[in-house]
Design brief:
Elements lengths: L3 E12 L2 E13 L4 E5 L6 H7 L9 E4 L2 E4 L2 E2 L5 H7 L4 E4 L3 H4 L6 H12 L4 H14 L5 H4 L9 H13 L5 E5 L7 H18 L2 E6 L2 H7 L2 E6 L2 E7 H6 L4 H9 L10
Parallel strand pairs: 3-9, 3-10, 7-8, 8-9
Antiparallel strand pairs: 1-2, 1-4, 1-5, 5-6, 10-11
Helix pairs in contact: 4-5, 5-7
Length: 267
């Protein structure tokens, strides 16, 4: 049984008397320990798909429907909000594009990590702080114990994203959803963060749903890929098969846009 199985997911938004379909009858599955990338241009529906898995989209204006969204055998589409709150952050964690807007500017890093840890684990007080320090160290934050009292604005963008990754991983989720996690970072920091994600995934057997528009990164990091165009998954399969022998015109067009001269170092 797959860790995650999305069957016939549709997401639409209603406003000003109009209905716009952002995700149209999407099907995908993710095995334990696998990296699945969802690729498409801006506005193709990637983020709506990722957020709909745990019903994080506000309703209204969003409407989510599916035959089933199964995670570890449980149907997330029909589970209670209380159960979903335990799953979000505990079993399915998210890392978003811009850490500066994800972190609370008036709380210290330690306070935010402690809140997440105490909500999703049995660690409390000093034990929670010790786990926070451990994870800050694992993601490469220097002097992690001293940085617990720092505020988000005292960190660079790359360090903020590492804090978000520590926060996401501290409860040891089964699935990490990374939605364009390197978009706001420069190329060198992007490479460091992607290597960190890869290493965590390999060491911990983590499943990773990676939302991206960077085909070279996807080719080197993911096991399988889903190509999205205008809300539809138009091509889906093993990453090397899809990207080296594309069958759909949209996939071919995306690959044609790739500038080979600008390919980054190997991840």
């Amino acid at each position: 049984m797959p860790l995650l199985d999305v069957d016939g997911l549709t997401v639409s938004y209603t406003g000003h008397g109009e209905r716009v379909v952002a995700v149209d009858d999407a099907h995908l599955s993710l095995e334990s320990g696998e990296i699945l990338a969802v690729v498409g241009e801006s506005g193709s529906g990637k983020s709506s798909l990722a957020l709909a898995i745990t019903r994080l989209l506000p309703s209204p204006p969003a409407r989510i429907s599916a035959r089933a969204i199964r995670f570890q055998g449980a149907d997330l589409l029909h589970t209670s909000e209380e159960t979903l709150r335990a799953i979000r952050g505990g079993k399915i964690a998210y890392v978003f594009q811009d850490p500066a807007t994800s972190l609370n500017p008036v709380l210290t890093i330690g306070e935010q990590l402690r809140e997440m840890i105490e909500r999703h684990t049995d660690r409390r007080g000093r034990d929670a702080d010790a786990l926070a320090v451990d994870w800050l160290s694992r993601v490469g934050i220097p002097s992690p114990e001293a940085r617990l009292g720092a505020y988000p604005h005292e960190f660079s963008g790359g360090m903020q994203q590492r804090v978000m990754l520590a926060m996401a991983m501290a409860a040891q989720p089964a699935l990490l959803v990374a939605d364009e996690p390197t978009t706001a970072l420069d190329v060198t920091i992007q490479l460091q963060l992607l290597r960190l994600l890869r290493d965590l995934q390999r060491r911990l057997g983590l499943s990773l749903l990676l939302i991206s528009h960077h085909l070279t990164v996807v080719e080197r990091l993911a096991h399988r890929v889903a190509i999205m165009e205008r809300g539809k998954i138009v091509e889906y399969g093993p990453v090397h098969q899809v990207l080296r022998e594309p069958a759909h015109p949209y996939t071919k067009a995306l690959l044609a846009c790739r500038l080979k001269a600008l390919r980054p170092q190997r991840i």
